[in-house]
Every structure is written in C-alpha cells, then in structure tokens.
Amino acid sequence: QVQLVESGGGLVQAGGSLRLSCAASGRTFSSNSMGWFRQAPGKEREFVVTTKWSSGSGFYADSAKGRFTISRDNAKNTVYLQMNSLKPEDTAVYYCAVRTRISGNVYYTGNSDYDLWGQGTQVTVSS
Q: What does the pLDDT average to over 25-29?
C-alpha cells in the first residue's frame, strides 16, 4: 500500500521552529514532485512549497519565503519542511503530497496537481 506519513508537528511559541517529515512507503518517489500544503480552520487548503524531482530546490509561497525550507532525501523516500520564525498565522494542519503522475521540469502548486496525500500533522503556534 502506497502511503505518506507526516510527523513533527506540535505546539510552539511564536518565533520558534519545527521540522516536519513526510515518509513515503510502498514505492519510491525520486522521480516525482513533492510538496507541502496547509489548511487552517475555516480556510481552504493552500500551497506552501514544492520541489521538483530533478532538483532539491524549492518554490515557495510568499508566506513561506525566507522562513521555511524544503528538502528531500530520495534514498529515504522522505521530504522535510524546516519551519523557522513561526508565526501564529502559520497555525494549520500541514499535509505533504506527491504527484504520482509524470512530473515535468516545472513547479506544481495546485491541490489538483497532486494525487497522493498524507493524513496531516497539526502545527500550532502560540503568540
């Protein structure tokens, strides 16, 4: 069974840091785009960051630029999200996602671009 499992969420004070992990099992995704999205209460799920299969570099939402860093370890089939300088508005359930369809050499930022999702991990930032 192919699945994604996120971990690393929790409660942190504003200005603090968290590192989220997303481990994939059932198949390898070294040739697929992987990304992170988040959903705050009462809001739609929004794009945070994505990385192309061909490189470890990321494309970030404006809200994440300069504070969040995506990385991936293809040998471990895992993608990470390092979040620094957290703000209360970062509070949300964070989801990792994989585009299992053929991925071009572009950044995919839409919810519909991805078809495999994790269960989510809660991140709460207190003021």
A: 83
Do 14 and 127 touch, CB atoms closer than 8 A?
yes
Q: Cβ of 98: how many Cβ atoms within 10 Å?
A: 24
**What 3-state class would DSSP assign to 43?**
coil
User: Do residues 59 and 110 touch, judged by C-beta distance below 8 A?
Assistant: no
* Confidence check: pLDDT of 4 > 90: yes
> What is the token pair recorded at 93?
């359930």
Token duo for residue 31: 């040739």
* Cα dihedral 89, 57, 111, 30 sign: negative
| Count helices and strands in the chain by DSSP H and E runs | 0, 11
DSSP 64: T
Percentage of the chain modeled with pLDDT above 70: 98
* pLDDT at 55 > cutoff 80: no
- 62's enclosing H/E stretch is none
* Per-residue tokens: 96: 């990792």
Question: CA of 41: how far to CAs of 38, 65, 121, in Å?
Answer: 10, 22, 13
